Structure of HD domain-containing protein:
Amino acid sequence: MSTNGESIPEIIGEAAAVRATKPEAAARPAAVALPITVADLEKDPEVRAYIEAGNANLAVIGFTEHGLRHANLVSHIARNVLRRLGYDQREQELAAIAGYLHDIGNAISRYDHSLTGALLARDILRRYGVAPEDIAIVMGAIGSHGDDTQRLGEPVHAVSAALILADKSDVHRSRVQNPDQSKFDQHDRVNYAAVSSFLRVDPGEKSITLELTIDTTIAPVMHYFEIFLPRMLMSTRAAEFLGCTFHININGVELL
Ligand SMILES: [Fe+2]
Ligand SMILES: [Fe+2]
């Protein structure tokens, strides 16, 4: 699976290289095991059907890719955000699960997909015997990750904040589903211009930086800011929720 020319294991490998653990994390109680891992969901035919149907629905109405690639990537990044910041295994797994399931509501409709997705996730997680308290965390994260109305996603939990950061960092040309460049809208153009994206979490500096490489012959950097202002606001709030600052670095220049 390739996102920006790197495979997900390579991205995770890079992330792991600078991982650190907060001192207070070591004092937390031992993680309580969940009855499932995200690997179970990756094999689940109902989950796969919803993700694939959601992506197909969005392709019809001209949206960028929201399929298994996006689900896998967001799941890995959300887990990594919490791992790098020293959260325990259980919270990391919940973030991975929320990341994998967060867009299944698109199988019903793009509109209010965060709310419908949260309820679909509840049914799926109940089937696996996940505790109501953990289902509530995943539902809260999915329900608060933002949609296409004027409401911004709001972090309500560390799992929720990690999901928002992971979801909003997926800007890449492989997301463009429109095969005809002459019919690109601004979202297509900015995504197509993004040749690499990486969310760097620095626990020492308490900073989270979205590093983008944008081909400015396709879209000027300003277009990114015009289109993604809501995403930047959501990411800033999510990083602050985790006790970090949020930054954007485009083509090697720190712009936020
Ligand atoms: Fe979404
Ligand atoms: Fe998403």
